[in-house]
């Protein structure tokens, strides 16, 4: 099994040796594929909560995760490791992309049953709430593919995820389908999050 080790510099020790050319740099790392999810707080990974930064189970809470690293972790870091990484990025940089993929990892943890049985329904609802936060707080957010030329709106994707998880999208949102019956967009005739007590910032 491929183990992805993400290295973070905790302390750079530079040793100067007269006979050697380059100075070596020592870094400490940890194996994120072995991280197990453990329920901490019902708002973890859902904007505007920053509670993940206080979760002792979150190994990323004291480190910066770059844009390149977060997508590498998304694909290869295991569901729990990726959740903690993306929840940390979301807490520090609250944008729709970060909320969407944090919710994706909550969904994956739930669907793959990588959690205590008594927490299953709570985590399912957390995933729904994470996708709802995309609609409430980041309704115009776009997801760009690698070349940066093609963009998708995250709102339709979040809307569909809520339905797939057995949730009901909240607010003034409607699905628009094409002639084949596929969801193509989500429109709102006027989102008023304050009426539902939603505070995004």
What does this structure look like?
There is one protein chain. The protein is of the alpha+beta class and 201 residues long. It has one domain. It has helices at residues 67-76, 79-92, 96-111, 120-137, 154-164, and strands spanning 5-8, 28-31, 142-144, 151-153, 173-177, 183-188. The strands form 3 sheets. Strands 1-2 form a two-stranded antiparallel sheet. A hairpin with a 5-residue loop joins strand 5 (173-177) and strand 6.
- The total domain count is 1
DSSP strand tally? 6
Taking all residues together, what is the mean pLDDT? 81
Q: Ranges with pLDDT <50 over ≥5 residues?
A: 1-28
Radius of gyration: 19 Å
Q: What series of H and E elements makes up the topology?
A: EEHHHHEEHEE
Q: Roughly what fraction of the amino acids lie in strands?
A: 5-15%
Shape: globular
Class computed from helices, strands and strand pairing: alpha+beta
Number of helices: 5
Strand neighbour order, sheet with most strands: 1-2
Give the % helix.
Answer: 25-40%
End-to-end C-alpha gap: 41 Å
How would a crystallographer describe the biggest sheet?
A: 2 strands, antiparallel
